[in-house]
Amino acid sequence: MEPQPPALLSAPRMLTLIGSILVSLSSGTNYIYSAYAPQLGARLLLSHTQLNVIGLAGNVGVYISGPAWGRVVDSKGPRIPLISAFACLLIGYLGIKRIYDDGTGTVASFMHIVILISCTFMTGFAGNAGLAVAMNTTAKSFPDTSRGTITGLVLSGFGLSAFFFAAVASIAFPGNTSALLLVLALGTAMPMLLGLVIVRQIPLPPPSTTFGVEGGLHGREEYQPIPSGDAALFIRGSDSNTSLLDTEHAHGASNYHVPESSTAVELVSDQIVSRGSSVRMSTSRARPVHDGPNVYGKQLWLTPDFYLIFAIMALLSGTGIMYINNVGSISQALYAKGNPNYDELEASRWQAAQVSTLSICNFSGRILIGLIADMFRYRLHLPRAYCFCIVSTLFVVSQLSVISVDGVAHLWKATALLGLAYGSLFGIAPTIIIDWFGLSHLSENWGYVSLSPLVGGNLFSLMFGRNLDSHASNDDSETHSPLSLIRRGGLPSEHQCFDGRDCYVSSLYVTATACLIALGLSVWAGIRDQRKAVEAKREVIWHAEE
Fold first, then answer.
1. What stretches pass through the bilayer (predicted)?
2. Which of 7, 13, 208, 267 is most buried, taking the most CB atoms under 10 A from its CB?
C-alpha cells in the first residue's frame, strides 16, 4: 500500500509554504532599485534615461527568463533554479556595489554602464528563478479551494521584498548606499540555499468529492472556468436523485473531461453527470480525466485568451514598472521644486518612504486579491477573471492621483494606490492562468505571459526617462538663475529637474489612458469567462437530455 500524502495542514506542507515565502521574499528586490538609483546616478553622473535603462535590465532579466525557468521548474524541479539564483544574486549585487564604491563623481565610462546593466540583469534573472520555484511548488501543494489565497500569500513575499531589505539597511546602516547593496547581496542569496532544503512539492490528499452508488456526486455546486479552444466540459454538482449504475472508475474524478493534445479522445460517447439525471459511466471506455484544462506550448499561442491576458498585463504592469523605477526621481523632483533649503539626506528619506510604502502596499495587494478571487469563485460563483476589473480600476485611480500630487508630502497616497494595484495584478494573474490554461504547465505558461511587462515596461519607462531629461536643468541656460545656485550647492545630480510635477506629468497622461484601455479589456475578459460557463452548462443539459 502506498503511503498516504500528508494532511492539508501538516508540518511538511506548512514548511514548504514558509520556505516558499522566504524564497519569494528574496526574489523581489528589483522593486528596491529606486531606493538607490538616484544615489547611483549622482555618484556616476548618469542621466535619467541611463538610469531607466539600467533599471529596465533587471525587469528584462525577470520577464525574459520566465519561459525558460518555467520549463526547468516544471520538468526538473527546484534544485537548478535555486542554485542559479544564489549565484546570480550574489554576483549581481556585489558587482553593483563595486561599481558604486569605485565611483568618484566623474562621468561613468561605457564599460561601467555595461557592467551595471549586466549585474542588474542577473538580479532580475535570479529573482524570476526563485519566484518560479516558490509559486509552482505551493500551487501544486495546495487544493484549488485555497489556491488563490495561498498563491497570493507567496507572491506577497515578492512584493514585500523591497520594504524588508530597505528597512534592514536603514536601521543598521542609515544613509549608506554601499551597505544597502551588501545587505541585498547576502540577504537575497542565502535564503536560496535554505530553499534547497525545505522547498519541495507535497502531494495532495485524495479529493473529498467522490461518486456514491446512490448519492451521486458529493461536492460544491460552483462556477468552473471553461478553457477556450479545448474540449473541456462544464459539470455541476448533482443532487440526491442522480444515480450512477457503474461507479468503478468514478472515484476521484475531477470537474472536467479534457483530452491531452497528443491523445485522440472521443468525449461524446461518455455521458455527462448533470443535475437531476440518471447517467451511466462506461467502465469499458474510460477516458483520461484532468483537473481543469491543459493548454501549453504551441496551443497556448493559438488561444485568444492568451493574447487577452497578455495585453492586460502589458498595459498595467508597464505602468507599474515605470512608476516603481522612477518613484525616487519623482519624489526628488517634488522635493526640489522651489526649495531653497535642499537637504540631500532629507530628500533620501522622502525617497525611502516611497519605496517602503510601495513595497508594503504591493505585499498587501497580493494577499487581498487572493482572498477576493477565492470569494468571487466560491461565494459569488463568478469567474476570477472579474478581479482584473478591480485591479485595472486601482491602476486608473493611482495614475490620476499621481497627476494631481504637487507636493512630496502627499506623494505617499499615490504610491500606496499604485503599490496596491501592482501587487494585486501579480497576485491574481497566476491564478487566472491556472483557471484558463491549467496547472500542469503553470510555470511555463506564466513565463510566456511574463514577457508582457517587457513591452509596456520598456515603452513607458524610456518615455518617462526621456521626458524627465528634457525638463532637467541646463547649466548654460540657467547660469544666472537662483535655482542653479541651489543645484550647485548640493543637489544629488546635474540632471535634476526643478519643475515638480511638470517634469513628468505628460508621461502619466499616457499611462492613465493605457490603464483605461486595460479596464475595458478586463470587463471583456470577465464577461467572456461567464458566457463560456453558461454555454457549457447548456451543453451539459443537452447531453443529459439525450
1. 12-33, 53-73, 80-96, 108-131, 152-173, 179-199, 306-324, 385-405, 411-434, 446-464, 508-527
2. 13
